[in-house]
Amino acid sequence: MGTRSRIGLQLNGGIVSVYCHWDGYPQYNGVILEHLYNDKDSISELIDGGDISSLLTDSDWNLKQIDGKPRPLYYSERGEDSPPELDYSITEFYERCDNCGAEYGYIWYNGDWICYDVYNNVGLIKDIPDVSVEEFERDYLSPVPVK
Fold first, then answer.
1. Distance (Å, whole) CA 112 – CA 125
2. Residues 6+ apart with CB under 8 A from 131
3. SS (H, E, C) 10-61
4. Predicted confidence (pLDDT) per residue in 1-18, tens digit
5. Contact at 8 Å (CB) between 36 and 52?
6. 124: phi then psi, degrees, rounded to nearest 5
7. What 8-state DSSP symbol labels residue 113?
8. Can you say how many angstroms the Cα of residue 82 is from the centroid of all Cα atoms in its chain?
9. Integer Cα distance of 118 and 82 in angstroms
10. What is the pTM of this model?
11. Which of 1, 55, 100, 105 has the most CB atoms around its CB within 10 Å?
12. What distances in angstroms separate CA 87 from CA 18, 39, 111, one per listed residue?
């Protein structure tokens, strides 16, 4: 079972967000967001793809190794129609998180990621671990050896 999350971008008119099924906890998706998606353009591109199975993977839906560096795996790649959703308030965003079973909600707001624990305590802000670039490249971007 996945640790579900929603990943959102605060805009003038509300919060546009997508669902992410796997590894939504701050120690994984939070760190990936901090390192790879740290400006409005890269976040917009991420969200434009629609709902996400895995934020960072090196395989496709058939579990075949993909060429190049790890990337998000979108539900649209297997034919599903799951576009980003727009919420007009933080309350609506929490409700959307609750409706999709998300345990964490991430919002890019004023140049920083904010992580909310929406499963245990609605509104409780969680810290995203501080991981150095070297640790990130070693622990998150390096391929996992296949046995």
1. 13
2. 31, 34, 35, 139, 140
3. EECCEEEEEEECCCCCHHHHHHHHHHHCCCHHHHHHHHHCCCEEEEEECECC
4. 589 999 999 998 899 999
5. no
6. -70, 120
7. E
8. 15
9. 22
10. 0.88
11. 105
12. 11, 20, 19
